[in-house]
Amino acid sequence: MEKMKLKLLYSDLKPELEMIEKELEQAVDSNSHLLNDASLHLLQAGGKRIRPVFVLLAGKFGNYNIDVMKQVAVPLELIHMASLVHDDVIDDSEMRRGQPTVKAQWNNSVAMYTGDFILARALEYITEVEIPSVHDILSKTMIEVCRGEIIQIEDKYKLDQNVRDYLRRIKRKTALLISSSCELGALVSGTDEKTAAHLRRFGYFIGMSFQIIDDILDFTSTDEELGKPAGSDFIQGNITLPVLFARKDEEIYRLLKESLYKELTDDERLHIVKMIRNSPAIKESKAISERYLNKAIKELSYLPKGTANKTMRNIALFIGKRKF
């Protein structure tokens, strides 16, 4: 239901998104049955496709041509997909979007090469764009995403890290790719530099808010709603914003510390989830997300009014309230 509400916000883009969906299927097609099956397994599990949506919306501020826009929208979604496949290996995740992960369905080797293959396809696709700054921005973004993944590994199980560590991590993990989606959409459609800069900042702020809400939902949603066990981030040693705020409570801090390296039963996992869900940490985390959302909406106020601006604003408002 929530996913349907989000799709309704950008229903004007339905024909273009259907075209991009077909392009994604073609992009992961190969002469290897194993690679095809593993790639399509993830692709067909669905997703919000928020990165292609932002590419297309950003393009509406310039000279919009879907044949040009898809050259950026497709690789950005492929890069995101590849990072998910690799993430599931690193986090040893069994479920994603209600389906077994590629590593669970096959094994770690297949998952790693599938991720590499999808990433290579993304690079192959973006070579069609003959704007040097597009390649410069995308390559720098990918470097930062990789740095973010390494930092996430280094920060695992560190309960005493600070909020700034967390924010730097999610900037690289999520915000920069969404920011680049907006900026690259603007560049390939030929907007002026000022417009591209506002869109880049809009994407960054939305990306920060999006990831914080994701981390909140890990504690406020059910296993069924998430398509994976609630509290998965904590179980995998990833210390997110709700945990950083919740640890101020001595009882919760003690419980978290005792549980970090332990193999938890379902009852123990759900007890931790309940403790954090009922703590002020959720409200405090939402307040931080709200600050980023307000900054994103402010960036839109500097851009020309119109359908794309309105849709971006509605998506921003939806992200703050989303329940999936």
Automatic annotation (TrEMBL):
<dbReference type="InterPro" id="IPR008949">
    <property type="entry name" value="Isoprenoid_synthase_dom_sf"/>
</dbReference>
<keyword id="KW-0479">Metal-binding</keyword>
<dbReference type="InterPro" id="IPR014119">
    <property type="entry name" value="GerC3_HepT"/>
</dbReference>
<dbReference type="Pfam" id="PF00348">
    <property type="entry name" value="polyprenyl_synt"/>
</dbReference>
<dbReference type="InterPro" id="IPR033749">
    <property type="entry name" value="Polyprenyl_synt_CS"/>
</dbReference>
<keyword id="KW-0460">Magnesium</keyword>
<keyword id="KW-0808">Transferase</keyword>
<dbReference type="InterPro" id="IPR000092">
    <property type="entry name" value="Polyprenyl_synt"/>
</dbReference>
<comment type="similarity">
    <text>Belongs to the FPP/GGPP synthase family.</text>
</comment>
<protein>
    <submittedName>
        <fullName>Heptaprenyl diphosphate synthase component II</fullName>
    </submittedName>
</protein>
